[in-house]
Write a structure and sequence with these properties.
about 325 residues, alpha/beta, 2 domains, five-stranded parallel β-sheet, 10 strands, GSCFA, EC 3.1.-.-
Length: about 325
């Protein structure tokens, strides 16, 4: 007897491995997945513009990575005592123009360089609603708490999204024919639009992705994070306190499905070793002064050394320092 609706997953046309540099862009859900990949030593770059939610802002960010023209003072504005960029999350905002531009352009240069050797791209769309700045008509990635009267709010149509991304994907694949793109839709509901409004927004994203998958059947795929949340994890115990965001348990479950279906077998074995090292570092001993704990730390350091012999590009400097500090 089955007590929940279980999804079926089509056989993936491509998978992820430790050999594949992966760029992740999109909503805060992509940061949850990206953080796990980074912690487990995948080659990643997560949201170089900060959290972005709509397809238009994410496509604009990718185009800036293709042609990384530095941001200048004219690209910033001042509000609430800080300088901001409409293309970036507030984590890049700063008290001075110089600091703001330095943060933005340093990350832009590094991410553009990473992007040129990227094998995989994970895109998570959160909403099809966008805000256009009345002054210029440009879609902004972040409103930075400016008054609502400064913007015009509209919902992108399926053709709007498909036309934009069809051109973008064509350009990306011309530059890098080996690139594979995985689309997801964020399982986080945008409740200020109401239940029906949220469904219309998500449906627009899903229809657009389906069209793009049909246009680029060998180069793109879809991972059903939204469907996992709505169907397999429909119980409210899988939600955070706001009843909108997935709980830590739900995010972990979706991550496990991602690994099981999209990470290749060899990398899954390496990933398991990385998780064991993570758990060992987080372990809190009953007696940190005991010889048994000292041997436990030495064995963990040995595991890191052996893994590094196999995966030479793994950087375990931080973890080694943490473990060695416990030997003193």
């Amino acid at each position: 007897m089955e007590f929940y609706t279980q999804l079926t997953y089509p056989k993936p046309l491509f998978q992820f491995s430790y050999q594949d540099p992966v760029l992740l862009l999109g909503s805060c859900f992509v940061e949850n997945i990206g953080t796990r990949m980074t912690d487990l030593k995948f080659q990643t770059d997560v949201n170089p513009f900060g959290t972005l939610y709509n397809p238009a802002s994410i496509s604009h960010a990718i185009r800036r990575l293709i042609e990384p023209e530095p941001y200048r003072e004219k690209d910033l504005f001042s509000a609430n005592g800080l300088f901001h960029s409409f293309d970036h999350h507030s984590r890049f905002s700063a008290l001075s123009v110089e600091t703001c531009l330095d943060q933005i352009n340093t990350r832009l240069d590094a991410s553009a360089c990473f992007f040129r050797r990227c094998h995989r791209l994970i895109i998570t769309w959160g909403t099809s609603w966008v805000y256009r700045l009345k002054e210029t008509g440009a879609i902004v990635g972040n409103c930075h708490k400016l008054p609502e009267r400064s913007f015009v709010r509209q919902r992108l149509s399926v053709p709007d999204i498909v036309d934009d991304w069809k051109a973008l994907l064509g350009e990306l694949l011309h530059i890098n024919p080996e690139l594979k793109v995985l689309f997801t839709v964020s399982p986080i509901r945008h409740w200020k639009d109401g239940a029906h409004g949220n469904q219309l927004s998500k449906a627009t994203l899903l229809l657009a992705i389906d069209e793009l998958n049909q246009l680029f059947p060998e180069e793109t795929a879809y991972f059903p994070s939204y469907e996992i949340m709505m169907d397999e994890l429909r119980d409210y115990r899988f939600y955070a306190d706001d009843m909108l965001h997935p709980s830590a348990q739900a995010i972990e479950y979706i991550w496990e499905q991602f690994v099981a279906h999209l990470v290749d077998a060899e990398s899954q074995a390496v990933l398991k070793s990385c998780q064991e090292i993570q758990k060992a570092i987080a372990h809190k001993p009953f007696n940190p002064e005991s010889e048994a704990y000292r041997q436990f730390i030495l064995q963990t350091l040995l595991k890191i050394d052996r893994l590094n012999e196999k995966m030479t590009f793994f950087d375990y400097t931080k973890e080694r320092n943490i473990l060695k500090s416990k030997l003193k």
